């Protein structure tokens, strides 16, 4: 079963690469290099595969967050979602020096902006300043979560 899934996955990825005109190395495929992609028939209940380009998506855990005033706000260490899977808040390791004296705070997901790398030096910008974030209570797992929103007010998650 696992070998069958791996074979279907490999064929699907190769077919997606051929369909997008890319070879395994990432360069455009030459017409003579492309072989007709034939996928084996999928058994009912087999998962499908989506191939995401590295230009379309990026990981945010551990990424630095800057304020609009270009202040270092810390790094994203976790993302909180509600029961329906909607993203509600990011947990930022805020303050301190080299990890000493820092604390985790929750900021509203809507207060974060993801800026394309070509437009600004830092890709994640928070609509709050360090002074607005300082009074935020520390995030502690298993306790009620207070999220700071872009208006500068503290609000509990429902």
Please describe the structure with a list of short key phrases separated by commas or semicolons.
158 residues, alpha+beta, SH3 type barrels, 2 domains, eight-stranded mixed beta sheet, 2 helices, 8 strands, elongated
Descriptive overview:
The relative contact order is 0.13. The protein starts with a helix and ends with a strand. The model is unreliable at 1-32 (pLDDT under 50). It is 14% helix and 25% strand. It has two domains: 1-57, no CATH class; 64-156, Roll (SH3 type barrels). The chain has 158 residues and is α+β, with helices and mostly antiparallel strands. Strand 1 and strand 2 form a beta hairpin. Strands 5-6-1-2-3-4-7-8 form an eight-stranded mixed β-sheet, with no helix packed on it.
How are the SSEs ordered, and which strands pair?
Elements: H1 2-19, E1 64-67, E2 72-81, E3 87-94, E4 103-108, E5 112-114, E6 124-126, H2 130-133, E7 146-148, E8 154-156
Instruction: Write the CATH fold name of the largest domain.
Output: SH3 type barrels
Order of strands in the sheet with the most strands? Answer: 5-6-1-2-3-4-7-8
Q: Whole-number average pLDDT?
A: 74
- Amount of helix: 10-25%
CATH homologous superfamily caption of the largest domain: PRC-barrel domain
CATH class of the largest domain: Mainly Beta
Question: How widely separated are the two ends?
Answer: 43 Å
Q: What's the structural domain tally?
A: 2
Percentage of β-strand residues:
25-35%
Determine the oligomeric state from the structure.
single chain
Figure out the total of helices. Answer: 2
Write down the secondary-structure element order: HEEEEEEHEE
Quick one: how many beta strands? 8
Q: Architecture of the largest domain, according to CATH?
A: Roll
| Main β-sheet description | 8 strands, mixed
């Amino acid at each position: 079963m696992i070998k069958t899934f791996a074979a279907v996955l490999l064929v699907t990825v190769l077919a997606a690469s051929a369909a997008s005109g890319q070879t395994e190395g990432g360069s455009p495929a030459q017409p003579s290099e492309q072989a007709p992609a034939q996928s084996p028939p999928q058994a009912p209940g087999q998962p499908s595969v989506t191939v995401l380009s590295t230009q379309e998506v990026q990981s945010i855990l551990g990424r630095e967050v800057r304020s609009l005033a270009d202040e270092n706000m810390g790094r994203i260490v976790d993302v909180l979602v509600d029961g329906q899977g909607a993203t509600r808040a990011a947990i930022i390791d805020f303050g301190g020096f080299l990890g000493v004296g820092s604390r985790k705070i929750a900021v509203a997901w809507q207060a974060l902006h993801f800026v394309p790398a070509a437009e600004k030096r830092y890709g994640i910008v928070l609509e709050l300043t360090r002074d607005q974030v300082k009074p935020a209570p520390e995030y502690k797992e298993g306790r009620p979560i207070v999220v700071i929103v872009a208006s500068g007010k503290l609000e509990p998650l429902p």
